[in-house]
Task: structure prediction
Amino acid sequence: MRGFFTRSVVLMAALSVLACGGLRYSQLDPAAESYHPGRIAVFPADVGPHKEASPAVEQIAAEVLIEKKWFKSVVSAESLVSRTSSDKELGKALAEYLSKLQTLSYSDPALSRKIGELIEADAFLLIAVDYWSYYIKKDKNLGKVSLGVRLIDAPSGKILWKAGHDKEESYTFFKPELSVIARSVFKTMVGKMPH
Result:
């Protein structure tokens, strides 16, 4: 009986460690198993009510992707937005694509392909900020960031991977920087991303 109890405790501890290492959710299309885009673009983040998160999240995404050295080129959201001001065709295509994606949950293949050709990208990464705040829970001060991402194949418009993850940090006197928490969340997610 004692051996059974010891094995049970060890098994439970191992499962707890494995559970902590995963993402909040991850959905992988079977085609993503052999997906290796050479060039990727980070789209402007969907921050919802968390407007203050926009520049930090977009910059973090581009920096982490560049650090990974998986891609020949990474087009940052800032660079993409800058290009849309001088390229009206790109601006219109991007606005239409994102509108259809947000309102209809439809990744338009024709618009996706057009954007990919205009910016010379094989894939797009879309980031949504689900939570970006400080709060109190059971007398604990917490900072929390929750992000969702979608990896889209530019030529086909197919969403190959969706994932979400979050992290909270407790504090007593000094609030942790939400951008630092966001970097940790994004790095964890990218570690699981097809490339």
User: Anything to note?
Assistant: Confidence is low (pLDDT under 50) at residues 3-20. The CA atoms of residues 141 and 174 lie 10 Å apart. DSSP finds six helices and six strands in the chain.
